[in-house]
Design brief:
Number of helices: 24
Shape: elongated
Radius of gyration: 30 Å
Distance between the termini: 79 Å
Structural class: alpha/beta
CATH class of the largest domain: Alpha Beta
Strand content: 5-15%
Number of strands: 16
Length: 484
C-alpha cells in the first residue's frame, strides 16, 4: 500500500480519520482475519491448537502478554508476527519523538505545535514495519534506557534550566508510543527497573528525575521469559506480573513431523546445493530425533531446554558435509549418508547445556550418545528388534548378516568416498542386501544398510572401529582374536 498523501491536520480531518489505540488496531484486524479465515500467525508451526488460540484471546481482551517458555520456542517470532495485525499506516505529528497522534497528542511538543498551527499542523505517516521495538533485558539496562533521563547537552544547547520539561530525553518505551514493545528475558531485568514499569502498564504516567509526566502512552507490551531464569538469574516481581494481562506457555514441537516442518522452514535454503543433494525422509527423521532424545537425556539439562535451532543448524551442517564430499569427488549429485551425521557434532555441542554427568563425559561424547540413541529409535520403526541375549544356535533375522562378518569379511565406509565407492562397499554383503530387500523398498537402501550396521554395533553384535578417515565394521570375535 502506498503512503497516504495527507500532509496536514486539516486534510486528516476531511478524510474522516478516527484515532485508534494500538490494542484497538490489533483487536479489529484480528477479528477481521478470523472472519475471513486468514491465518494471523503465518510461519508459526505447531502452536495452532495450543499457543495461538491463547494469543488471540489475549489480543481480543486487549491484554499485555508474557510468553513463558524455554529457549528456541518461537517466543520472539510470535511477537514479531503481531506486526501483521497493525494498520498499514498511521498519522503522526511531524517531528514528534514519541509518535504523537494528531487527534490525541500526549507530548508538550505536539500539543504546542497543534495549538500554534491548528489545521496547518504538519502530519507524516508511520508504516507498521517501523512500529516494533525490542529490548533484550540485561542486568546493565537502566531506567534511563527504558524511560528516559535529563539531557544536559540539550539543556546547554537550548539554554534551558533543568526544571524545563524540554531537557528530557525520552527512553525506548516513550519513543515506542503506538507500537508493539517487546522486552526479552524479563527476569534478567533488575527488580528496581521492573518497578519503573508499574505505572506505564497501569496508569500510563512516567517519572523522570522528579518530572512527574502524565503521558498516557499507547503500547502493546509483549514480554518473554524462560522458566529456568526464575531460579537461576532472577524473577519477575509480583506486582509487575499482576499487571500483565495474560501469561502464555509455549512448548517444543510435539511430533517429528511438526519438527521437520519447522526445520525445513528455518534452515538456510541454498538452491545450488539443494538441487544436487538428496536428503531421504529417514535422514530428516533421524535429525529431529536427536533433539527429542536430548530433551529427555540424563546428560542434558532439560530445564535449560534444547532449542529448535539445534535441528536447524544440524541440517545446514549435514547438507554442507555432503556438499564438501561431492566437491572433493567431483560428483554431480549425491545423497545424505548416515556417515555424514558425524559432521553435525559441532552443531549439537554448542546447543546443549550439560549436567554434571554430561560434563564428565564431554560434549562430543554426549553428542555421539544422543546420535546413537536417535539411531536406535528410528531403527525400531523400520526393522525387527535386535535381541541382546539369544539361545545358542537360535537363528533370527540378523543371523545371516552376522555370519557373513564371522567368516572374516568386513565393510569399510570412508568419510569422503565417492558415490560408486560407497555403493560398492555396502553391496559387498549379500546377506545385508537380502535383509534390506525383505523389509524395505529399494529407495534409500544404502542409508538403511548403514542404519542396520550401526545398530548391530550399538547392540554389540558387530564391532565398529574408527579408522583414519572413516569406519570399519567387523565381527567382534574375529577382531578380538586378530588383536590377540
Amino acid at each position: 500500500m502506498n503512503q497516504p498523501k495527507i500532509q496536514t491536520l486539516g486534510e486528516l480531518k476531511q478524510a474522516d480519520y478516527t484515532y485508534q489505540s494500538v490494542k484497538d488496531e490489533l483487536r479489529k484486524n484480528l477479528i477481521q482475519n478470523i472472519k475471513d479465515n486468514r491465518n494471523s500467525f503465518e510461519g508459526i508451526i505447531g502452536f495452532e491448537d495450543t499457543v495461538i488460540p491463547q494469543i488471540e484471546r489475549a489480543i481480543l481482551s486487549q491484554h499485555n502478554i508474557n510468553l513463558l517458555g524455554l529457549r528456541g520456542q518461537a517466543k520472539t517470532r510470535i511477537a514479531r508476527a503481531m506486526l501483521g495485525l497493525l494498520d498499514e499506516w498511521i498519522p503522526v505529528v511531524k517531528g514528534s519523538s514519541i509518535n504523537d497522534d494528531p487527534f490525541q497528542p500526549v507530548s508538550n511538543f505536539a500539543k504546542k505545535i497543534i495549538q500554534e498551527k491548528g489545521d496547518e499542523t504538519p502530519v507524516e505517516w508511520l508504516h507498521k514495519s517501523d512500529r516494533f521495538a525490542e529490548k533484550l533485558a540485561t542486568p546493565d539496562v537502566s531506567v534511563a534506557d527504558l524511560i528516559g533521563d535529563i539531557d544536559p547537552i540539550k539543556a546547554a544547547n537550548l539554554k534551558l534550566s533543568y526544571s524545563d520539561e524540554r531537557v528530557i530525553h525520552y527512553g525506548m518505551i516513550p519513543r515506542a508510543n503506538r507500537c508493539i514493545f517487546v522486552i526479552n528475558e524479563l527476569p534478567d531485568l533488575q527488580a528496581r527497573i521492573q518497578v519503573a514499569l508499574f505505572n506505564i502498564l497501569q496508569e500510563g504516567d512516567i517519572q523522570i528525575r522528579g518530572f512527574n509526566l502524565r503521558l498516557p502512552l499507547d503500547l502493546q507490551f509483549v514480554f518473554t521469559a524462560n522458566p529456568e531464569d526464575y531460579t537461576n538469574r532472577g524473577s519477575i516481581v509480583t506486582p509487575l506480573k499482576d499487571r500483565i494481562g495474560s501469561q502464555i506457555l509455549t512448548h517444543y514441537p510435539e511430533t517429528i513431523e511438526i519438527a521437520k516442518q519447522i526445520t525445513a522452514q528455518e534452515a538456510k535454503a541454498i538452491e545450488e546445493r539443494n538441487q544436487h543433494i538428496k536428503i531421504p525422509e529417514v535422514a530428516k527423521d533421524l535429525l529431529e530425533q536427536i533433539s527429542f532424545e536430548a530433551r529427555k537425556s540424563e546428560y542434558v539439562d532439560v530445564k535449560s531446554g534444547v532449542s529448535a535451532r539445534l535441528s536447524i543448524s544440524a541440517l545446514e551442517n549435514l547438507m554442507s558435509t555432503a556438499e564438501r564430499r561431492s566437491l572433493l569427488n567431483q560428483d554431480q549429485s549425491t545423497s545424505i549418508r548416515l556417515m555424514d551425521f558425524n559432521g553435525i557434532i559441532p552443531a549439537i555441542t554448542g546447543k546443549i547445556e550439560l549436567l554434571y554427568e554430561g560434563e564428565q563425559a564431554g560434549a562430543d561424547q554426549v553428542a555421539e550418545i544422543l546420535l546413537e540413541k536417535a539411531m536406535q529409535s528410528i531403527f525400531k520403526k523400520h526393522f525387527p528388534e535386535i535381541k541382546k541375549l539369544e539361545k545358542e544356535g537360535e537363528k533370527n533375522e540378523y543371523t545371516d548378516i552376522m555370519q557373513w562378518f564371522a567368516e572374516g569379511n568386513d565393510i569399510e565406509l570412508l568419510d569422503n568416498a565417492s558415490n560408486d565407492e560407497y555403493e560398492l562397499s555396502l553391496k559387498a554383503s549379500e546377506a545385508l542386501n537380502e535383509f534390506i530387500k525383505k523389509h524395505l523398498s529399494a529407495e534409500n537402501e544404502n542409508f538403511f544398510k548403514e542404519l542396520v550396521l550401526w545398530n548391530l554395533c550399538i547392540f554389540q553384535k558387530l564391532d565398529k572401529n574408527k579408522i583414519t578417515n572413516g569406519y570399519q565394521f567387523k565381527d567382534m570375535l574375529s577382531d578380538y582374536l586378530k588383536n590377540l
